[in-house]
Amino acid sequence: MAYDSWGRGLVAVTLLLLHGCVRPVTELDLIMPVLPVDQAIAAQIQALVQKESGIRINLVPIPDGYTSELDALESGYGDIAFAPNNSSYRDGIASILPLYPTVLHIATFNDRAGDSLEDLLSGAIVYAGSSGSIPRLLSESIVNDLHLPPGAIRFIEEWENDNPPDVIIMYVPIDRERVMDNAQLKGVKLFSFGSPHDIGKGSAIDRAVLFNPSLRPYVIPIGAYGELTPEPIVTAAVENMLVARVDMDDTIAYDLFAEMLRLRPALFSERPELFQPLDEQLDRSNFVFGLHLGVLDFLQRDEPTFIERYSGVAEALVTLLIGSVSGLFAVMNIYRIRRKNRIDKFYVDVISIRDSVSSDTVTAERDAAVAKIHALKNKAFELLVDERLAADETFRIFIELTRDALTDIDDKKS
Question: Which of 74, 79, 41 is nearest to 58 (CA)?
Answer without folding.
Answer: 79
